[in-house]
Amino acid sequence: MEPVKLVYPVEGGDFIQAGEASSKMKMTLKKLGLPSDVIRKASICMYEGEINMVIHANGGQAEVEITMDQIILRMVDHGPGIPDIPKAMEEGYSTAGPEVRSLGFGAGMGLPNMKRYSDEMDIDTELGKGTTVTMKLKIS
User: Fold this and answer.
1) Number of domains, the chain
2) Contact 112, 91 (CB under 8 A)
3) CA 140/CA 35 separation, integer angstroms
């Protein structure tokens, strides 16, 4: 199988379209016949990253690369950056405001879930410049 590359724009603050990129990726993974557990994990990682970009980073871009043995998800934004990664990785910690929480988002589970459901996760962030979260999931 030739590597498959997908790119999805994510609009900041657009809670109506939030989740569209992960839904489209999920459909592609199903068409490729990948195992359902891998599809589920990749969809969770993608959705959480997408929601984080909608809430915190004024949007960005979700990049997906699918090879024979792995899925690489790269969430790239030009938001404010993450000032304290260890704190942001704590379950329940969130900097989302009350308006976002009133919509049912911002529970502080995004990054912890991304870490939990990926086999490998790396966060590259620079304050005032943006954040790139790269997740790898093995296809077994």
Assistant:
1) 1
2) yes
3) 8
Amino acid at 16: I
Residue identified by tokens 């724009």 is 9
pLDDT digits (tens, 9 = 90+) for 42-61: 999 999 999 999 999 999 99
Q: Which domain holds residue 120?
A: 4-138
Segment 105-120, tens digit of pLDDT = 888 889 999 999 999 9
Distance CA 5, CA 22 (A): 14
Sign of CA dihedral 137, 63, 59, 37: negative
- What is the three-class DSSP state of 126? strand
Distance from the first to the final alpha carbon of the chain: 15
**Pairing assessment for the beta strands 70-77 and 130-138 based on DSSP bridges:** antiparallel
Confidence (pTM)? 0.93
Distance CA 76, CA 60 (A): 6
Report the CATH number at residue 134.
3.30.565.10
What does 32-74 look like in DSSP terms, one character per residue? TT--HHHHHHHHHHHHHHHHHHHHHSSEEEEEEEE-SSEEEEE
